[in-house]
Write a structure and sequence with these properties.
By secondary structure, this protein is an alpha/beta fold. The chain is built from eight helices and five strands.
């Protein structure tokens, strides 16, 4: 029997999507879960919190059990935020991951990284990672979902890394657009799925703004603690 295994997702905490709070009434779950539901495909989510590209190659690729209809790869945020970002190492790992996904799935979708990444900002390494992701996606015949311009408090938490629950739906919408543009049938739009509905009334916006500001205060405290730790141990 030629059993198809639906959608397989590789990546880091952004794709794993565990935890979080509802934003503007949107149920908190991974963008790839929204995408799988929109495509009416079963999901195998192999993403791991904190993963960099070499981690995906070493720990997630061996767990592939294709054939899959679609594979997604969203990696690079942790690589680019690292003080030791090494572009050649990142490129080699992504190249091998995409080769494996090409063998395991009918189509592969590569998701890029927002340029305004991290607080403090990750800087030029993000653009370098995105150039590599786009170049290798083209080389392997993969589709690309661009997130370079994704930013702002509606879609990202104050750390400017992790999406809000509304941001997860926004990413899924962009992924659905990329697939539809390539001729893939998307039976349902992610934003129209149950519990993906975003509240826009004034009360919801005010409550969300207050909640986001509390998260911002916590993130400022995190950054202050990190700076103090760095002063004590700069290595």
């Amino acid at each position: 029997m030629d059993l198809r295994r639906g959608l397989v997702a590789l990546g880091d905490s952004i794709t794993r999507g565990q935890g979080g709070a509802p934003a503007l009434g949107v149920h908190p779950q991974s963008w790839v879960q929204w995408l799988a539901e929109a495509l009416e495909l079963p999901l195998t989510n192999l993403a791991v919190d904190g993963a960099c590209a070499p981690d995906v190659l070493r720990e997630q690729v061996p767990r592939l059990r294709g054939p899959y209809d679609l594979a997604t790869l969203h990696v690079g945020a942790n690589d680019a935020r690292s003080t030791g970002f090494d572009a050649p190492t990142f490129e080699r790992a992504v190249d091998e991951v995409l080769a494996a996904l090409g063998d395991a799935a009918g189509r592969t979708l590569v998701v890029t990284v927002p340029l305004d990444l991290g607080r403090p900002r990750a800087g030029a390494d993000v653009a370098a990672a995105d150039v590599i992701l786009r170049r290798l996606a083209e080389a392997h015949g993969a589709l690309v979902c661009g997130l370079e311009d994704l930013r702002g408090p509606r879609v990202l938490l104050p750390d400017a890394v992790h999406p809000t629950s509304a941001g997860m739906v926004a990413i899924a919408e962009r992924a659905a657009d990329a697939l539809a543009a390539a001729g893939v049938v998307v039976p349902r739009r992610p934003a129209t799925l149950p519990h993906a509905d975003e509240r826009t009334d004034a009360v919801a916006r005010v409550r969300y703004g207050a909640w986001w500001l509390r998260q911002l205060a916590r993130d400022h405290a995190r950054r202050l603690a990190e700076r103090r730790q760095y002063r004590r141990d700069p290595t």
